[in-house]
Structures are given as C-alpha cells and as structure tokens.
Amino acid sequence: MGSKFGLKGVFSIQGPRSIYVYSLFIGLLSGFGAYGFNWALTWTESFTFGNLMGYDPGIPTGDLHFHSIGSVNPISPLWILFLPAFGGLLVGIVTSFFCAEAQGGGTDSLIYAFHFNEGKIQTKVPFFKVIATILTLGSGGSGGKEGPTAQIGAGFGSSLAGFLGAGARARRTLMLAGTAGGLGAIFRAPLGGAITAVEMVYQEDIESDSLVPCILSSVTAYLTYTSIAGSGSLFSVKEYSLNDYRHIPLYILLGLLCYVVGYFFVKVYHKIQDVFSKLPLPNYLKPAFGGLLVGCIALLFPEVLGSGFGLIQRMINGEVLESTSFAFSGPFFLLAVALFKVFSTSLTVGSGGSGGLLGPSFAIGGMLGAFVGSMAQVLFPELGIIIFPFLLVGMGSFFAGVARAPIAGMIMVCDMIGSYELLPPLMIVSVIAVVLSHKTSIYRNQIKNRFLSPSHHWDMNQDIMDRIRIRDHFSEFRMYAMVSENLSLTELQSNAPGIQASDFILVGAGEEYKGIVSLRKNRILPEFEADLKNLITCGEIVQDVPSVCTNDTMGKALQILLEYDVDKLAIVEDGKCLGYLRYIDLFNAYQNEVKNKQRKSA
C-alpha cells in the first residue's frame, strides 16, 4: 500500500480541527528550528565579533543560555571594514547560485507567497535562508533574526500542506502558523508572534481566519524553545508603570519622531533596493559591495553592527552608552546611532544580504526612544525621567509605523519584556506613528486589506452567495458521482476515469447520505491493487462532510466546500440524497445572479 493511501488518507486535512492539530505540530518544529538557528548564529558571532573585530555588542538576557562573547580582542579596524564585505560575498554566492529567494528580509517574500502564490514556499528556501543569515549577521551585517526563523516555520507549514495535498486556503493558514511559530520562539513572544503573523500581510486589516492556528503554533514554539533555552522574556526589565501624566507629551513627541525617522527609513531602504537592483555588477558581488559600505559606517559607529538587541539590553540595565571609536556620548550620540542604523540596515538587506527588518526596526526605535528620554532628563530634570521606558515604547511604535502593524508592535514589545505595564504609552505612540504613516510601509508586498487581496477575491463575493437559496437556481441535481458505501476502493478507482470525477458522494442502501470519498486523498497505488483488491470498501474511508438542503444558501455550500477541501457537496432532503452540486455549478449560479442584477439596474 503506497503512501498516498496509507498517509494522506489518514492524515489529510478534513476541517478546522485538523488545521489546529497541525498548527501544534508546526509550532513544535518551529521551536526546534529557531533554537538551532540561534545557537549557530550566536556561536558564529562569538568568534567574528570577539576574536576578529574586537567588538562586544552585548547580549539580551533571554539569550544568555547561548554562549556569549567571552574574551574580546583589541578592536580591529581592518576586520570591521572588510568582514561585512566578505560575508556579503559568501551570501551573494549562496543566493546567486543556489537559492535566490534566500536574499533580502524574508518577511516580504512570505507576504508575497501568501497573496500571490497560494502560500507555496520551496522546500530549500528555509535551509539556505538560515545559512545566508548566519553569514550576513555573523560577519557584522545589520539585520534581524526573524527573517530565517519565520521562513523556517513557514517552510514547515507550506511543505506539510503540500505533502497532505491541502488546498490553497489551508496552505496559506499553515504557512502563517509556521511564521507565527518562528517569531514567537525567537522573540520569546507567544502572543506577539501570532499577532505579527496575521497583521503583517495587510496594511489596514488582519488575517483573522488564521488567528487561532497562529496562536496555537506560536505558543507551542515558544514553549518548545524555552524548554531548551530556559524560561523568561527576551529582555530583563525593572518594574515600571506610567504614574506621572506629565510624561505623556514626551511620548507624543516620541510618536512624531518615530513617524519622521520611520518615513525616512522606508524611503532610504526602498531607494537602496532599487539602486542595487540596477547596479551594473554581477549579482553575487552586490551584497559584498553593500557590506563594504556597512563596514565604512562601522569604522565610525561599530554600534550599527548586528541586530542591536545587545545594546538595548545594556541601556535597559542603566548603562550609559558611549561611542566605541571616539569620545562621543549623550542624547545626540543615540540619535546618530539610530540614523546610521537606518543606512547600515538598508545597505545590508537592500543590497541582497540576508536579515530581517523587524529586529533593526526595534533597535532604531529603541535608540529614538532613548534619545527622547535622555533629552528630557537634561531639559526637565524635575520630571524624574527614566530612559528605558521611552526606549521600549520607541521600539514598538517605530516598528508599528514602518510595518503598518500597530497591534503587533505593542504586543510584541510587551511579550519581549514580560510585562504589560507599558501598554498605555505604547498605545498612544504606536497609534500616532501608524496614523501619520498611512501611505508608507517597509514591506512592498503588503496589500491594503483583504478586499484587495487575490487570496480573498472569491470571499469578497460571499455576501451575494449568502442571499441566494439553492432552490432558486436548481431544481435537479447531478447523480453521476454517487456510489454505494459497499463499493470497493479498487473498483471505484477503475470506474473514476469514465465518470471523470475524483470526489464521490457515498450513499447507503436506502439512498441515505454517508459522506464523501476523495481519490485525491485516498488511493491505492497500482503495485498494491492486486493484493488489496476488494479488501477496502469506500465506507471504511469515508470523509464526514456536512450536506445541505435546498433551502440552504449557496454561501453555506461554498463554505463547506472550502472548509473540507472537496469539489462537490451532497443535497439531502427528508433523509434521502437528491444529488450533488459542484464548484462550477455554484460559480455559474453566481454569474447568472450578477447578470440578472446588471440587467435590472440597466
């Protein structure tokens, strides 16, 4: 018996409950994948940053499980200048000759796959994305960890859906569930990972259909990851609450600053992307050239290297950040780091390097928040300003603005610090940043809302379908693909080509409806037909799919077809199966309804 019958028949997706179960499984794999990636990246950075460049970027408390940089050699300007270029060259070779999809941020390609490619991701992409990102970030490139971890999870989800023969709708859901798992694990953000996955695909909407699977996957990945790496949030933060309302105008000012710099970041990133796409250089050299420019910036500001999360933790701990290269500190040093981080990230990712944009967005926003907080300390000492709340609020609001994801920005930061005490100022600043930046987004493949997404074109016509009764358009129903529950599976396979059907309505001796048998999900391979002939009946492998009656709407019929991934639906009245409706029948009825409305309005 081949795998098609033995595995797909048993494990095929047969409704929402199947999606939920597979979301848990995908979350488990995503958690292990995120742990393996973070371990490999941290090991690489401990060698390149500590031994070669001689720069210690720090490490978030949540990553202390992984070995951090131990002894740090004296700073080496040559390594700082040329190591990002060397890493970019290796990345260029990987993306040019093995997997072009591994370049860039990763999140934008996931958004594209969701809207325009039915959630399909090549199996090789997560593997090469991990390698390319380790080379990029390990050599000092400015980027985030979320790109590969999201693609690892999304790759698991898409590949599993393909193996099970799932439809496009289920595959998109499992792809987003995997994305949520990767984000929830690497950022230790079980709820934030789920919200980010469903919110990032739109500018003004969320993919609500996938919310529950994303939560299940993200929580599972988080628990898997922390069971190995230790529990706790990503950043260790002292307790704080907003109890002095005189700080609110400063948070409003921070929101305006996040909008201005966020707008600048989006324009610079897209411009650099366009310039490098037209640059008369071989594609494998472009990330190296971008890395060389990053190295030039890092000679003055080594703080722009890597993800920047280590610097954030150091500032949360109360450390006064000072320039590594020359005597420069204070508020304007923090602002300079934020602005140069904009350029270093744009050059790293926009030139074809591999790294996420979410992590650097948090780092840039954190520096902007620290700038506002430290300036307020100087100008208004009587307010008793503490810097780290402004830093954390800046992180969430900046990402919310550039990614058009207000809820994700707020929840992600709260999860990463393990506290919701900062939610009120986060809400204020994030809303300001999002409202002002309503026309810009760092992700070019975002769609405004689900009404404009190709993945929901048919769903948007559901309201018409919900008004049409089946009896209004059909008085007779097809019966060619109705078979007895006692028919053997081998005989059904033999008769299927003549009937020209792959899904069959199963009926009992009294024409009562029993369910549906799908040869797309259950099939005996030719080499096993002789051994299994007449041993398996259709009644033993029937799929329990609800039926409809003539008084039901075509919208209900369509919903069942989509939910259970079948191509026909039984019509039952008074306990007897009258026949069935196919997709094409519903489409034709819909078209006739639209034409009738157009004639009446003409």
From TrEMBL:
Annotated ranges, domain CBS: 541-596
TM annotation in the entry: 20-41, 78-100, 174-198, 210-236, 248-269, 289-312, 324-343, 355-376, 383-402, 422-442
Compartment(s): Membrane
Superkingdom per UniProt: Bacteria
Topology class, membrane: Multi-pass membrane protein
Species annotation: Leptospira montravelensis
Name of protein: Chloride channel protein
Pfam family for this entry, one: Voltage_CLC
Xref: Gene3D superfamilies: CBS-domain, Clc chloride channel
Annotated coiled-coil segments of the chain: none
Record keywords: CBS domain, Chloride, Chloride channel, Ion channel, Ion transport, Membrane, Transmembrane, Transmembrane helix, Transport
